[in-house]
Each structure stands twice: as C-alpha cells, then as structure tokens.
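hey
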C-alpha cells in the first residue's frame, strides 16, 4: 500500500466487460437479464436482509463505523488513535470459523481465490467502479454492480438531481484501509463484508453553477462497510462480485 496513489479510472466497466478481454473462455454475452435472474437476485437480497435483521453481530458491524467515528466519548476518541480496523474492536464478537467456512466455499467455486488478491481487487476495481459511478451519476454502471437495495440508495438522489437540472461535481480522491471483516455462507452463495475509507469531495450545483449541496473545497473522509456477494454461477471472479448492502458515515478531513 505504501506510496500508492489513487488513479481515477477514465472509463468505468461493467462486470462482464473485463471478462470479455481477459477471460475469453468465460465470456458469454448476456445483455438482457431474464426474469429468473431478477427473481434470484431479489431472493438473495431478501435472504440477506432477514439474516441481517436477526443477527445482532452483523448489525453491530454495519453500525460500528457510524458510532465509532461520530462518537464524542473520550475513550472511543482515544481508541481511534490506536486502531482503524473494525476487526480489531469487533473481532471478539465473531466466530473465526464462519469466515473460514465462507472462504472455503468461495474456493470451491474459484480455486484460485486468495484473500489478499481479493482485497486488492476490491481496492483497485470493485470499489472504484461503484464509487466513481456514484459520484459521476452513472446509473448504468451502478445497476450492473449493485443489487436492488444499494442501487436504489445511490440512484434515487442522482435521479432527483437530474430531474432538477443539477450537476453532480463530486470526486473520489483516495481509497484506503480496505479490510476483510467477516463472511457468511448464505443459501444463495457466499457473502464477504469489507470495510474501507475513502476521501471524497461532495458537491452538487444547479444549472447556474450555484452550490446546492456539499462544498468543492472540503474533503470528506467516508467510512464504508460493504457487503459483497459472490455469484456462484459466474466462474470469472472479475465479474462475479456484486454489492448487496452497505453502511457509510462521513466527517470532514482535517489535514
């Protein structure tokens, strides 16, 4: 990670586009999602929501960054200096076996799977494509990478801004601290939860150039927890991961 500089991708890709170039044997054009696939997606999302709602540990992870970074408690503020990883504080709450079971399940689908390489893929490919699509208002890319829940979370404000003739002038400056928090094997397939931080400039302007929301001169540090699910029917790892759920909290970056 040392010395790495974030480079914003000039062209965002859909999941299948890289497989077309780099994994010819896996590539089958499938432009129109069938009703069956949509049904499978919504079942997966529903199954995840049920699991999350009934699992206090997952709730803690999804809420942890929010509470940790916004807390005024001096003990928590002091501990912030010691750690920035969810797993360091929450580690005792999770069964290590669940993560290893999930990784074993992923290796059955993709025997070349490697945790470090996966985190690198998150940092350099999955996260930039989704975050950049969000800041550029690219709904097509978002729809490809996201399940219905996170897609709507991103798309609704973007659509509202477009309707009002606003311009989104947000920017991703950096992505770091990508960490694997926990895993879960769902009926529909394995799920991995990652946390990371990004530095972003958030700004929305109207047609006349007036700032409606955000500040082009203020850098925000955003803490994310993302739930990524592995499509078991897709052999190409660069096309197989999609965003199933997320939580985020932001504060101003003081240099």
């Amino acid at each position: 990670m040392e010395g790495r500089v974030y480079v914003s991708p000039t062209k965002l890709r859909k999941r299948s586009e890289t497989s077309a170039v780099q994994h010819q044997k896996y590539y089958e054009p499938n432009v129109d999602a069938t009703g069956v696939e949509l049904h499978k997606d919504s079942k997966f999302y529903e199954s995840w929501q049920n699991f999350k709602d009934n699992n206090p540990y997952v709730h803690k992870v999804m809420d942890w960054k929010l509470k940790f970074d916004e807390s005024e408690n001096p003990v928590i503020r002091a501990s912030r200096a010691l750690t920035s990883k969810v797993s360091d504080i929450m580690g005792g709450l999770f069964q290590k076996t669940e993560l290893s079971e999930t990784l074993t399940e992923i290796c059955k689908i993709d025997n070349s799977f490697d945790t470090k390489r996966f985190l690198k893929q998150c940092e350099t490919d999955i996260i930039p494509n989704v975050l950049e699509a969000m800041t550029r208002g690219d709904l097509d890319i978002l729809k490809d990478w996201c399940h219905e829940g996170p897609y709507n979370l991103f798309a609704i404000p973007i659509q509202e801004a477009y309707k009002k003739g606003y311009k989104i002038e947000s920017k991703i400056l950096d992505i770091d601290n990508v960490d694997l928090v926990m895993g879960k094997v769902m009926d529909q397939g394995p799920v991995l939860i990652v946390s990371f931080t990004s530095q972003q400039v958030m700004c929305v302007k109207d047609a006349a150039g007036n700032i409606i929301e955000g500040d082009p001169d203020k850098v925000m540090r955003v803490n994310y927890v993302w739930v990524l699910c592995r499509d078991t029917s897709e052999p190409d790892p660069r096309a197989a991961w999609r965003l199933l759920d997320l939580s985020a909290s932001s504060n101003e970056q003081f240099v």
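Residues 115-136 form the longest helix (22 residues). The two ends are 20 Å apart (CA to CA).
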